Amino acid sequence: MHVFYSKRELESHLQKERNKNRTVGLVPTMGALHQGHLSLVKKAIAQTNIVVVSVFVNPTQFDQKEDLEKYPRNLQRDLDLLNEVNPNIVVFAPSADEIYSGNVNSKSYDFDGLDKVMEGEFRTGHFDGVGTIVELFLRTVHPDKAYFGEKDFQQLQIIKKLVEKRQLPYEIIGCPIEREANGLAMSSRNERLPKTTRNEAGFIHSTLVTAKSKFGTESAKEIKDWVKSEFAKNSVFELEYFEITDESTLTPMLKKQANQKYRAFIAVYADGVRLIDNLRLN
Ligand code: PAF
User: For the whole model, what pTM was predicted?
Assistant: First the structure.
């Protein structure tokens, strides 16, 4: 397996591959890989010739120092997992210095308001940090296709917006959420949950599924009130937000419009770990 720590060496390797007319797929990750990531990697392998997986815990997208410090890191385990999937995967695992050269700051983006709600509202500066690192990876790797999970659906829409606004010639592909047996959306953060909490965390997804079943007959306000009351009764999971939005603009739904797609989004704290999930409603 090829593992690169330097941008320049990665670029020169990929240039040689491109000269042989090979297509390139990019899967950006922050490591602590799980089956959700591996499903993106497998899709990239099926659709492109050379697959680059970046493993980088990006400091500029964390609004809380403690969350950044506690983010799980295990590069050797990640490399072993990737090697099992395919030993030809190219891994890019730069240091923060290699990426930011001592200036650990985000650029400022205008995402046409997509970043003003939900994750953007509760995590100040998060999407500027995501935009900064994803743009840098795209401009370094020049992938034909780049793959992102729908667990971070707002992030996916924002990256599509970034590519559109910056007129970058890369195809952004969203991939379905992978779930644990109890329905909990796979996330690197799940590792930090105590076992009993992790077992009970199917509650988050089952709440979304019930919200979806109510969507045909109840208003957004009624559904939101119901979700709040379910969480108020639960002492393990603390609701940060539940929102129903238009899928493309991410604006909260006030009144259902014909031919619009809607999605429910949720963020929850459990034992100090922040978990997010979402579900298409129609
Ligand atoms: O989704 C993630 O893991 C991160 O936000 C990403 C896209 C790798 C950027 O750091």
Answer: 0.97
